[in-house]
Amino acid sequence: MNTAMGSTAPRPPALRGAGLAKRYGTTTALDGFDLVVESATVHGLLGPNGAGKTTAVRCFTTLTDLDEGTAAIDGIDVRRDPAAVRERIGLVGQFHAVDEALTARQNLVLFGRLSGLSKTHAHERSAELLDAFDLTDAADRAVSGFSGGMRRRLDIAASLVLTPAVLFLDEPTTGLDPRGRATVWQAVRDIAAAGTTVLLTTQYLDEADQLADRISVMDHGRVIAEGTPDELKARLGGDRVQVVVADAGRADAAAASMARAAGAEASVDLDTRTVTVEVANGAATLAPIVRALDADGIAFDDLVLRRPTLDEVFLHLTGPATSAEPRLEPR
Amino acid sequence: MTTTTSTLRGAPVRRGHRPNALREGALIARRDVLHWVREPWGIIFGLAFNFMLVLMFGFLFGGAIALPGGGDYLQFLLPGMFALTMLFGLESTMTAMAEDAGRGITDRFRSLPISSASVALGRALADLASSALSLAVLMLGGLVIGWRPTTGPAEIALGVVLLLWLRFALLWLGIFLGLRLRGSGAVTAVQVLVWPIGFLSTVFVSAETMPGWLGAIAEWNPVSATATAARVLFGNPTGATSGWLAENAVLAASVWPLAITLVFLPLAAGAYRRLRR
Asked: Which letter does DSSP use for residue A280 in this model?
């Protein structure tokens, strides 16, 4: 047995939670939540509203006390040494946690000085961050006049005054326009490239897909599936081809041709005249489906190839059809 | 955004430093000073409003108000207004605390490696400073319209200390209420309730002119204790010719805030800890 100590001891994961439980009255926010995030990776915590994502983040960041379980950052227990944990984390919560009445620069200097930087150092660091987050032009304007995207960038900058070992981003793009979202995504990539571990919560599958090395899918306070985006997507049955038939009476016929071409069961929604089929390889299956519909003389108004929606992910992961299947990572 | 990675690579790492509640409290209090500089109208309006009350009662109603024991009404009114200003400070403490906690900035502070006392300490420092400033402006304004303290510097200084002592006590009540009532309409309710509490005192009229039961309530109001003590210490008419408060005003103005502090400081600390729930 390897009993090596010191420099050869394995580094603890950047973040580890085991059996976390948190109840508010009769509501259970976390219920046997387990999570391990390796250092210098981006981990996506994917789940609907109320799944417990925010509670999990609050427990790891020492804001909320756990009822049960152990949570640690860099091997440091959040209950035993919250002060040491706070030195190692950055938090971007769902609410803009910057002072509206102050300027962007005043906010960053305040948080820098509270983090222990000298006045000079805090000013230097603020200037760097303003520059890095494209806020230099707005640096001396009050935050109350900022757009949602600018606020979010400032929020992220404020959590990077010191280099955190783990940065928590709680739904960082909720409420942002596509451009704001793109800049936040780029910031997350840059932060990860610089070696900071990121735990990102999101309701959007594509966001987790774009940014995360690994994803934990969360529901009812626990992780119901975990894996790389590719592993999860394989589990979720790949893409969907969706066809809107011109004549609702031909929907069943369309379902039959599509099922034949895709080699999978197709589902029909008569109200929207929509026929949907799961395809393993969307791009390659599209042409056979169109040919099959053509050959059977079925006219259609619209045809899209799309990723599974989060709804479908959850149906797939929580529905009765999948409950007997093994989890991605049996736990 | 292209420089983010290099900015982060060069970022400072600071581990194992000792939290210093005083330094951090001062930094958090400095936030309020920046607010005053950036948006001075709130504070100017507050001062103007207090001064308007002085003018209204001093000159509009004052002529119709006779003081038991005699004396000029304006001399009676000003120390009362000083005490009332301390009470009104409760609202700003409560509102600021509730807003910060509701917006997530309190959570940001709580996620930083700073002393857990520094948020409340910052609030206390900022609010004491702003109340001291309000008091100074109101005293100067009073002097302009004819208010005159008639005692020596030591008594006047003690009067100012007792006024700020009441304000200090109300800090903890404000922090407690702000944290517990945040996000609910109850904050507005308290803002409204401060008025009858302020008026049900000897700030504007002597308790001896009120029906017996009402006068008793007014005399037991901590604001009355501080108002009466300030009148005594500034050498102004107290409007009180007899009774325990008339003879022990300074004692009452020392003990009431102490009692409030002893009750609400632990409650405020508990409310702050409850944020972790």
From this structure: S
- CB atoms under 10 Å from CB of A320, counted, come to 7
Both tokens assigned to A150: 């600018």
Q: Which residues in A lie closer than 8 A to residue B10 (C-beta atoms)? A: 128
For residue A20, the model assigns a pLDDT of: 96
Task: Name A138's Cβ contacts closer than 8 Å, sequence gap at least 6.
Answer: A104, A146, A150
Cβ of B108 within 8 Å of Cβ of A93? The answer is yes
Chain B residue with Cα closest to A160: B8
- The DSSP line for B67-82 is PTT---HHHHHHHHHH
Which amino acid type is present at position A41?
A: T
For residue A229, the surrounding DSSP H or E stretch is helix A229-235
CB contacts under 8 A, A 21-60 vs B, are: 24
Per-residue pLDDT tens over the stretch B230-276? 999 999 998 887 778 878 999 999 999 999 999 999 999 999 999 98
Q: Tokens 């049996």, residue? A: A330
For residue A276, give the amino acid letter. Answer: T
CB contact under 8 A, A131 and B3: yes
Helix (H) or strand (E) holding A282: helix A282-295
**B113 to chain A: which residues are within 8 Å by CB?**
83-84, 86-87, 115-116
Beta strands at A68-73 and A15-24: parallel, antiparallel or unpaired? antiparallel
User: First-to-last CA distance in chain B?
Assistant: 37
Q: Which helix (H) or strand (E) holds A253?
A: helix A251-262
Q: How far apart are CA B108 and CA B100, in angstroms?
A: 10
- What type of residue is B70? G
Backbone angles phi, psi at A216, to 5 degrees: -110, 125
Task: Name residues whose C-beta falls within 8 Å of residue B102's C-beta, 6 or more positions apart in sequence.
Answer: B182, B183
pTM of the model: 0.83
Q: How far apart are CA A203 and CA A51, in angstroms?
A: 10
The answer to whether A122 touches A109, Cβ cutoff 8 Å, is: yes
Residue from A22, A78, A163 to probe the interface with B (highest B Cβ count within 10 Å): A163
Give the bridge partners for A242, in sequence order: A276, A304
Question: What's the start-to-end Cα distance of chain A, in Å?
Answer: 25
| Partners of residue B39 in chain A, C-beta under 8 Å | 101
- Cα–Cα dist A71/A20, whole Å: 7
Between strands A197-202 and A214-219, the pairing is unpaired
- Quote the mean pLDDT of chain A: 87
> Which carries the bigger pLDDT value, residue B97 or residue B245?
B97
The span from the CA of A236 to the CA of A233, in Å, is 5
Tokens 């005192």 belong to which residue? B201
3-state DSSP call for residue A306? strand
pLDDT digits (tens, 9 = 90+) for A41-80: 999 999 888 899 999 999 999 999 999 999 999 999 999 9
Give chain B as a DSSP string: -TTHHHHHHT-----SPPP-HHHHHHHHHHHHHHHHHH-THHHHHHHHHHHHHHHIIIIIIGGG-PPTT---HHHHHHHHHHHHHHHHHHHHHHHHHHHHHHHTHHHHHHTSSS-TTHHHHHHHHHHHHHHHHHHHHHHHHHHHHT----S-HHHHHHHHHHHHHHHHHHHHHHHHHHHHHTTSTHHHHHHHHHHHHHHSSSSSS-GGGS-HHHHHHHHHSHHHHHHHHHHHHHT---S--SSHHHHSHHHHHHHHHHHHHHHHHHHHHHHHHHTT-
